[in-house]
Amino acid sequence: MSSASPQGCVRGFGVGALLAASFLDLAYASSMGSHTVTVALPLAAGLAALLWPAARRPRWLTVPVRTAVPALCFLLYSVGSVAAHRREPFGPGEAMLLLCLLFVAVRHAPPRWALVCGALDIAAFLAMPVRLFQMWLDEGVLSLMLVGLALAGLVTGLAGYLRSMDYRRAVAIAETRRAERLAIAADLHDFVAHHVTGILVQTRMARMLEASRPGALDPVLAGIERAATEALASMRRTVGVLRESDGPQPPERRPGGDLAGVEELVEGFASPAHNVTLLRDPAVSDDLPHEVQAAAFRVVQEALTNVRRHAADATEITVGLRRDGDRLEVSVVDDGRGGTQLPDAARGGGFGLVGLKERVTALGGELHAGPRPGHGWEIRALLPALES
Prior knowledge:
Blueprint: H1 6-31, H2 36-51, H3 63-83, H4 92-108, H5 111-126, H6 128-133, H7 139-212, H8 217-238, H9 259-269, E1 275-280, H10 290-310, E2 316-324, E3 327-334, H11 352-362, E4 366-371, E5 377-384
Parallel strand pairs: 1-2
Antiparallel strand pairs: 2-3, 3-5, 4-5
Helix pairs in contact: 1-2, 1-4, 2-3, 2-4, 3-4, 3-5, 4-5, 4-7, 5-7, 7-8, 7-11, 9-10, 10-11
């Protein structure tokens, strides 16, 4: 029997609170003799804007529309009641809806629209006490408006802070992906250079054999064909992610790593506190394409780095390399509970997995990272393993 996630519980509680507060507004309006339909229409517009499922939301229902239209409905309701000198109530449902709409506008609307929609939401929020008391300069009304302005300021500040954090994370992810593309480009250069150099050497050998031993040309020509095919395959598998210009400066070269390097990583990571086991399927050969071996090396490297950063209390770490049909499965599993002695600044921002996913998907592979049942963490990658 599965339990609901904390996020789902919080969302369900929030939806329930909004609906309950809106019904309370309707009951309060009915007790004061107000037209229930007049109160219900702006409440319905606000609830629809907030609770309409994103997957079923029409394309025209953008963030500016969702946050501006309900605010305009509430504002017109207040202006109309003041113009008609008719006292109309307000309640917690309307206040909660307008503050939620203000939060959505400031955090998610395009910059110019965020200012316009946020101003409309604040104006509608501050107009509520005026609608009830039918006066602007009354001491009680001014006090309520000051409290409302403070609440609106807090919501605006929180939404603005989260918006800036979203922007910083988006920039960091973009930079991580760009750096990974540069690394892939460097690896691609090394792979193709390796094969093209082999083609050049074997071509010269073929020219020398042409005159002296014509019968020995077939193996040499077969090697040339194989090297050329592998060079083209390496380019085809990785060049798809290099869509943007990387500037005139060449990237810093770094070794791509291979399956032999995985064994060295495991040996170097082992310590009295960490028992690291490498389980390598005999069917996993060293003849896999270079970029596949480099990706496998990076998966293990990133996983072991994350153990040091986030699960220093792990005692058993298992690294697996095995064939799964025509794919190579790379897995790193630990039994850590999240203990670490590293300071916060040394734990990283979680962008290593972003670059790793970029590399794995560039090869047509899949990457999964997540907690294990009970405790521990697992990183698992499936890579194409057609031998060269």
